[in-house]
Amino acid sequence: MTDRRPGIVHLGVGAFARAHLAWYTQHATGEPWGITAFTGRSPAAADALAAQDCRYTLVTRAADGDVAEVVDTIVAAHPGTDDTAWRRAVASPTTSIVTLTVTEAGYRAGSDVPARLVDGLAARRAADGGRIALVSLDNLTHNGDVLRDAVHAATADPDLRAWIDDHVTFPSSMVDRITPATTDDDVAGLADLPGALPGDRVPVVAEPFVEWVLEDAFDGIDRPAWETAGVRLVPDVTPFEQRKLWLLNGSHSLLASLGLLLGHETVAEAMADPRCRAAVEQLWDEAAAELPLPAAEVDDARAALVERFANPRIRHTLRQIVAGSAAKLPVRVVDVLRRRLDRDPAAGVGPGAATALAAWWLHCTEQPELVDDPGAPGPDSDVHDVLAVVAPDLDTTPVVDAVTAAADRIRTAAAPARGTVDEGVLR
Questions:
Q1: What is the pTM assigned to this prediction?
Q2: 250 and 181, same structural domain?
Q3: CA Rg value for the chain
Q4: Residue 421 has pLDDT above 50, yes or no
Q5: How many domains does the chain have?
Q6: How far is residue 376's CA from residue 354's CA, in Å, rounded to a whole number?
Q7: Residue 275: CB atoms within 10 Å
Q8: Euclidean distance between the first and final Cα of the chain, in Å?
């Protein structure tokens, strides 16, 4: 039996939620809170967790070795098809928070996620369950607003919609922790890892770095003391979303396209290449100039990213990152470029942004067999086709010239004859 209060209901339990939300909840001081977890639709994850009393091993994988701890924050696990358990959990007076990790697709038209939330909220209203916070932990800008809009769109009953407006808050959050897929070797390795749960079949592996910036919009709604575990409560998460998008995600996109062109497979390999590292630093310089955060905080974030990217034991493949770049580049790279030009039209295109756009262009045209992106231009595309996809308003002579010049430098760097590498070739 657990003495944890089952105050959190989580939808979409998976590796990230167990390495992030559950970890923070376990490490928060004060009253111990528990999580009632629901899968998407498949019962597999719920069955596997229930078979070991919902306890599991979190393996923190640093460059110099692994550290294990047992996480016991989840107090119950249900398949997403158990609608009765879902309604009961959301309606319970002990529940004050519902969290979600359902990926971006869960918020789109046609997804059943908003309808499931509305169903739970209707049960809560009928039970007079009181105020509640719905917190998205998905990588969406202004995810609280996105979630609110999705719930409103799925609420046909005007009386229920009015109740939701009065009783439900939707705090936005920025979350970060790389959580690679658990392998059979990871499971087998637990036998020799001190602190691991004996016989664990569903461990989670994560990098040492973890971050959660949460909008302080609970309006008296009870919650764990997450700030005691390192959660940053702020009035507006926007600057922190921008920091993550422009520094981490932007450089990931750059490393993915450029790294693949230069023969690399993982982020760690690409970051160890001086040509990639120099381009990343340029991109970060350009982003730092547009971020509304103290310079010291931006410098700390950059230093942390260098360490994270260089961790060779977190295998983050470039092919995984480069997929879907047509939708990613506008918010990760082009947004910074557009702000730079709006702030100072004479600033021109920075070399980091030019390299990122050029690298994706060459990725699409010179290695089309690696492209997994329905929005990408075809293998015969020119720079105008690329800009039409990610930045049609920036199809100007200065931008075209800058991207074209960057592409020429990348072609030289990626040439087969690499006996003498010019580490500054992309500058």
A1: 0.92
A2: no
A3: 23
A4: no
A5: 2
A6: 17
A7: 23
A8: 61
